Amino acid sequence: MEKLKYRELVQKILMAHTERVLNGECSNRETALQTIFDVERDHYLVMVVGWHSGRRDYGSLIHVDIKDDKIWIQSDGTEVGVASELVEAGIPSHDIVLGYKSPFKRQFTDYGKG
Amino acid sequence: MEKLKYRELVQKILMAHTERVLNGECSNRETALQTIFDVERDHYLVMVVGWHSGRRDYGSLIHVDIKDDKIWIQSDGTEVGVASELVEAGIPSHDIVLGYKSPFKRQFTDYGKG
To answer: CA A90 to CA B109: how far, in whole Å?
Structure first.
């Protein structure tokens, strides 16, 4: 699967998560969900941004980069796990790097070492 | 100043911060600084992403949105303050919203209420 396909797939997965959250339990919150795609630099994020009951709601729900034909997962707050979704969609696990795991720990995963 | 100018200025300020950090004290860190521009959806971020001495370095240094011709500062970890830089560049303060301050507190600032 070429790089272009990786990009399309990552965007599709992030969009699906955004829609799932917006249509689900969080739909009554004042907090917005931002889909942020920088296709030129290959950064793909879903951010939570807003206020809820007087408290700031802020942080990344998902952050994925594509770098040297590998998919780097920098942050993942989903229940299902973006890495699992990518594998299910046909991406070989050695093309996925769990950036949120330390470089040392990555060698003990089924994913790429980065 | 039209919306296009706002976009250009925000990108210029974020780029300058990225370069300042990369050329400055943080240049010896393993951590990367990502400039993330989604011009289509008007989200502009500088993110810190990496590992440093066995610890995860992750978070937004700057996050700016342009929404309804206003510049929303959602996150700002700079010393100078992006809002001050925008005002200095000629943006009227009522066109800047400090999103990281609560909607209640915003009325007591010199900036827009959002």
So the answer is: 51
pLDDT digits (tens, 9 = 90+) for A85-114: 999 999 999 999 999 999 999 999 999 998
Domain count, chain B: 1
Confirm or reject contact between A100 and chain B (CB < 8 A): yes
Kindly state whether residue B23 falls inside one of the protein's structural domains: yes
Which residue in the set A35, A74, A75 is minimally distant from B41, CB to CB? A35
CA-closest candidate to residue A42, choices A89, A18, A81, A9: A9
Two structure tokens written together for B108: 């007591």
**Percent of residues in chain B assigned helix, strand, coil, to nearest 5:** 35, 35, 30
**CB contacts < 8 A (A, B):** 56
Total number of residues shown for chain B: 114
Within-domain flag for A8: yes
* B105–chain A Cβ distance below 8 A for any pair: no
Q: What is the pTM of this model?
A: 0.93
Assigned domain for B87 exists: yes
- B41 to chain A: which residues are within 8 Å by CB? 34-37
- Round to whole Å and give the CA distance between A111 and B77: 33
A58/B41 touch (CB, cutoff 8 Å), yes or no: no
Enter the ipTM: 0.91
Cα–Cα separations (whole angstroms), residue B64 to A77, A99, B6: 22, 25, 11
Q: What is the pLDDT of residues B60-95, one digit of tens each?
A: 999 999 999 999 999 999 999 999 999 999 999 999
